[in-house]
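discrete fold record:
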Amino acid sequence: MKKNRSVIITKQGTPVALLLVVALVAACGLLSCSHGGDAHPSDSLAEALGNQIFTDYYNYYDASSVAKHGDDFNDNVDDSYADGHDTAAPADDDQDPDGTTAVPHDKIRGNASEAESLISLFNGMDTDDMTGVIDQLNAANKAIGSNKTYASYATEIKWYLGLAYLKAGKLDKARSMFKEVAGAGSDMYSSQAQEIVDKLDKAA
């Protein structure tokens, strides 16, 4: 009699067990969907951290070292680039239509058009898709050894490339760039680069 009762329990219990398994699998599927399927939480955290550091450290390229300017130069320089004005005025230091003193040709390091293109890249990081910016800055970084203009902007290229990597959530590549900048030791960006490296190390 006990044997039969055991068989009955087993037969009744089997569907219940299967239902539990099915329910568990379904629940896991729902959880996966709610997190975006293939999305990885670590990727989201990296992107959030990168964006925060980017916001804290990104500024338009400070042309004060290569141009005469008024007190409002850094406030207006983004308008100058955004409006498509000539970023390199003739030697007489004519002003852009927005009132910003432009960078004189004779003060630009290297080839004027190449320098202007670089500065436009440095000041064009308001876009959400950093792919193009990263590609162009990477190309400039690789050409530093063979291009005199790029060589004269070597630190700036690495600095802004690092920032672009941050905004894209590529923290390892960003850290590598900032370590190079920090290693220079004699540049205005080096101390800030080391701060970023420390922040990334702390978050790792």
